[in-house]
């Protein structure tokens, strides 16, 4: 596999996400593969939301 891409969306996208929503995405790769994440749109509520 030389070219693989996918899209990760929050529940309800493109609408607003629910209050107190906790989303976790797990990405699993074959041994020896790496990953490049690119955020094209990232919007959060100041002070309350964050990315770990």
TrEMBL record:
Assigned keywords, A-Z: Disulfide bond
Gene that this sequence comes from: CSMD3
Molecular-function GO terms, alphabetical: serine-type endopeptidase activity
Gene Ontology cellular-component annotations: extracellular space
Pfam families xref list: CUB
Domain CUB: 1-52
Top-level lineage group: Eukaryota
Organism name: Nothobranchius kadleci
Record-linked PROSITE patterns: CUB
Name of the protein described by the UniProt record: CUB and Sushi multiple domains 3
